[in-house]
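REQUEST FORM: STRUCTURE PREDICTION
Request ID: SP-0412
Submitted by: Lab K.M.
Chain count: 1
Length (residues): 263
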Amino acid sequence: MRTEKRACSGVRREFLFRTLPQHACLLAGVLGLWEWAARAGWIDVTFTGQPTGIGQFLWSNLIQSPTLWIELGWTLLGTFASFLMGSVAALLVGLLFVSMPRLERFSDPYLSAFNAMPRIALMPLFILWFGLGVASKIAIGFSLTFFIVLSSTVAGMRGVSQDHLTLTRTLGAKPLQMFTLVTLPGAVPVIFAGLRLGLVYAMLGVVGGEIIAAEHGLGQTLAYLGSTFNMNGVMAVLVVLSLLGMAIIWMMTAFERKLLHWQ
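STATUS: Completed
RESULT:
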């Protein structure tokens, strides 16, 4: 345990005193060069914006006014709702497929056909069914999350070592005990990989749906700013979306490490 803590402390120290300054210098250099090129007229700010304008937009709409926070809240609502619903449905269907392989073989052509459809092409149908509100965005996020988590659940369950299952069965374990003590813990790493990817794709689906047609959300804000040629605003929203994606990945990775500390 002490060795583990010492290793974690060393990693944090290296990140704070070596890796972080390197990234900060790189970003400062890129932003400085971008700003200089914009002021010198080497690039057209109508199409690229400039760092000072992006900073002003973020300051105005995040600090002085809660505009972007409100739109971010709508995007997060759709993202987490679609992720939770899609993940739970995928986990249940995955368990059903593992216990009933014939049902999986029967359902595979239909699921593959639906999964092959571009979700953005289905957006008009979702809007017709669920309206312009957050429900249609949840539907598109659900359709993306479901198949990603389903495939990882089935792969994780079937990838458990057969030797462990045979040994557990030999020792007299009941089916429920085998599932909770062997199958599920062995499948968790693969399932979590699908959950992490599913959450990212849920956000991408929700934002994509908001760009097409929505009343609220960062995607709708991005579409409006792009239509009015406010490139500083477009770049600022893209920065917020990229930071949101990084935060989601970091959150899921940290939760996975905490859950799988025994490995």
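NOTES: DSSP finds eleven helices and no strands in the chain.
Reviewed by: T.R.
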